[in-house]
Amino acid sequence: MLDIRSQRGTAELASRTDAGPDVLHYLATHAAAATRAAVAANTATTATTNRILADDPSEDVRAELAAKIARLMPGLSQRESSHIYALTIETLECLARDAAVRVRAILAELIKDMDCIPHDVVMTLARDLNTVVSVPILECSPLLSSADLMEIIAYGQVSEALAAIARRRKVDGDVSAALVQTLDVSAVAALLVNPDAAIRKETMDRIIDQAGEIGAWQMPLALRADLSARAIRRIAGLVGSSIIERLAARNDLSESTRARLNRELRLRLAQEEDILDTEVDHHTAPADIVAAAKAEGRLDDWFVEQAAMRGQREMVVQALAALAQVDAATVRKILSSGQAKPVVSLIWHAHLSMRVAFKVQTFLLKMPSHEVLPARSGIAFPLPREEMRWHLSYFNIPVS
Fold first, then answer.
1. CA–CA distance from 344 to each of 17, 84, 248, 312, 380 (Å)?
2. What CA–CA distance (Å, rounded) separates 72 from 382?
3. How many CB atoms lie within 10 A of CB 261?
4. Burial, 331: exposed, middle or buried (Cβ in 10 Å; 0-12, 13-18, 19+)?
5. Three-class SS state of 296
6. Which of 350, 346, 357 has its CA nearest to residue 392?
7. Helices 286-295 and 313-324, interaxial angle, to 10°?
8. Fewer CB within 10 Å, N or C, the chain?
9. Beta bridge partners of 171
């Protein structure tokens, strides 16, 4: 017989399925943490002992227990008595509320595809504020109804959780509409690339309304298989030539829609060619190019965005100076400050979009990602107007 007084002996005994329930219970309540963890992993441990181990002070013990209980759940009610089943469910509920993220995450990952888990447990994990716990359940659990998902969306989950819902194997029209209502960029992008997501006409219209400002939605939109001819034409009016080419390559287009896309493509290529021509024209100063564009009504979001994406710093300087009615030296000072907030404030003052502000930060100024100031709700300026006025006043720019 093994010597249960030695640490090695008790650990070996705790792992044996023939050790006996009383011995395992004794070890679970009196032995060291490593031995208790072995008892927690042992499939021969009784439901009563498992329930005690769910309150064990050691996270390692509870983690082992979570992994085992998850593996035991399929078919449990068919092979166990009602008392054992009730105790096991109580243990499962306790682990779903465990203080340690690691324990909850292990449980969520292992039960995410199961249809034998109590609904309350699934909802507890789905509402978890830590995404390593909630995301596997939100993306995979077959037990979450559309009503559950809409409740969770309304609960104000973070972007990663919303995107997980958008990636589900089946997303109905109500859930899609609720996701789009959040204007979360990552979630809507994930919804668009999900072929099993049903998106109603009015929901698609809402996405298209915002897509001109949110580049991350444009290619997924173009690749949707269920676009109407009307939606395709609307998208073509918002995007660049490369995405229009993708739209024109679809094999489900009518002749009239294809002809319209080809006309739009020629127009967009001509616009882009105009900007390229200004880039290679070394004899024309950026200030003169900007003045000409302003006179022709072409000094707009598109002009500044394309200049920023091509790294034409002085072109952007002159454009912002003209649009914001600020001298070029002040614009250069703001762009050279290395601070996102005054840059974004200046672009707001120039009556340009937050999309332009994002492109200036990333393409022209090449700010590190952790310093870039992103849009609020995908399209809006992230700073209050009073704060932007304050940043501009620091550079002696008066704003009424």
1. 65, 61, 35, 18, 11
2. 48
3. 21
4. buried
5. coil
6. 346
7. 50
8. C
9. 197
Six-digit token string for 208: 């298209």
Backbone angles phi, psi at 279, to 5 degrees: -70, -35
Amino acid found at 160:
E
Nearest to 230 by CA among 210, 212, 247: 247
Helices (H), 97-217: 101-111, 119-126, 131-140, 146-154, 159-166, 173-182, 185-193, 201-211
Q: Which residues contact 317 (CB under 8 A, 6 or more apart)?
A: 286, 328, 331, 332, 335
β-partners of residue 380 are 376
Structure tokens, 122: 């699934």
Q: Is pLDDT larger for residue 295 or for residue 4?
A: 295
Cα separation, 55 vs 158, whole angstroms? 30
pLDDT, tens only, 100-148: 999 999 999 999 999 999 999 999 999 999 999 999 999 999 999 999 9
Give the end-to-end CA distance of the chain in Å, rounded to a whole number: 89
Q: Which residues contact 90 (CB under 8 A, 6 or more apart)?
A: 51
Following DSSP, what letter does each residue of 73-95 receive, concatenated? -TTHHHHS-HHHHHHHHHHHHHH
pLDDT tier for residue 2 given thresholds of 50, 70 and 90:
very low
CA 323 from centre of chain: 34
pLDDT tens for each residue of 220-276 = 988 898 899 999 888 888 777 778 888 888 888 888 888 888 888 787 777 666 555
Give the CA count within 13 Å in the CB-facing half-sphere of 81.
6
pLDDT digits (tens, 9 = 90+) for 37-76: 999 999 999 999 999 999 999 999 999 999 999 999 997 8
| Contact assessment for residue 110 and residue 117, using Cβ atoms and an 8 Å cutoff | no
Longest CA–CA span in the chain (Å) reads: 97
Angle value at C-alpha 156, between 147 and 214, nearest 5 degrees: 100
Of 127, 125, 73, which Cα lies nearest the Cα of 104? 125
Which amino acid, 214? I
- Amino acid letter, residue 266: R
Residues 307-359 have pLDDT tens digits of: 888 888 999 999 999 999 999 999 999 999 889 999 999 999 999 999 899 88
